[in-house]
Amino acid sequence: MAERVWQQLAVEIVSGNVAGGRRLDEVEQAQRLGVSRTPLRESLRQLAALGLVENRPHRGVVVADGVGAGLFEVLAELEAACARSAAEKLAPDQAEVLRRLPADAMTILPWLREASGNAVLRGLLNTLWYPLVKDCQAQTAECQALIQSLRDSVAAGDANKAADAALAYVRRCRQLFLG
After folding, report:
1. Measured by CB atoms within 10 angstroms of the end CB, which terminus of the chain is less buried, N or C?
2. What is the topology classification, in CATH, of domain 2-63?
């Protein structure tokens, strides 16, 4: 239950539906989300750990400012680091497997996270993308082309081109998500 609450609040905050600086009253939010205060508090702790909300003295939990743009900036840099690392470490047999994968983000990005060999990077990316996945799944032709470029660059071992493609993909997602 806390996971559902965390995800819903994260999407609302990142998308800007809940404005920065707004106080999240526990009683109000628990009623609105149809949960008790215990899962809500757990969700708020998780959101605070990600920097989406802040605990302020005498105000309670408040939505942090500039969350959406800040999150996508971090995602872009982390995906670029992941793509670069995967391109540098990829064995020839892995490159062949990668070339045969469909050029969609839900297939390529998790595959690259595994190929990067960095569990911390993989965990951070999985956690940070989690509230956005449902809303970012609708891939435009442009997004698919960017993912294809990313896939092909990593398979070719071109770390710089792979990082550039990852940056471009996440920046396009940001435009689609935040407007």
Report:
1. C
2. Arc Repressor Mutant, subunit A (1.10.10)
pLDDT, tens digit (0-9, with 9 covering 90-100), for 124-144: 898 888 767 666 656 678 888
pLDDT in tens, 75-113: 999 999 999 999 999 999 999 999 999 998 889 999 999
Predicted pLDDT at 138 = 60
Distance CA 109, CA 79 (A): 8
Q: Which residues contact 70 (CB under 8 A, 6 or more apart)?
A: 51
CATH number listed for the domain at residues 67-178: 1.20.120.530
- Size of the chain, expressed as the number of residues it contains: 179
CB burial readout 20-29, b (16+ within 10 A) else e: beeebeeeeb
CA distance 178 to 157: 32
The 8 Å CB, 24+ separation contacts for 141-147 are: 142/172, 143/105, 143/169, 143/172, 143/173, 143/176, 144/103, 144/104, 146/172, 147/103, 147/104, 147/105, 147/108, 147/109
Domain ranges of the chain: 2-63, 67-178
* pLDDT exceeds cutoff 80 at 71: yes
Name, in order, each residue with C-beta under 8 angstroms of 100's C-beta and a sequence gap of 6 or more: none
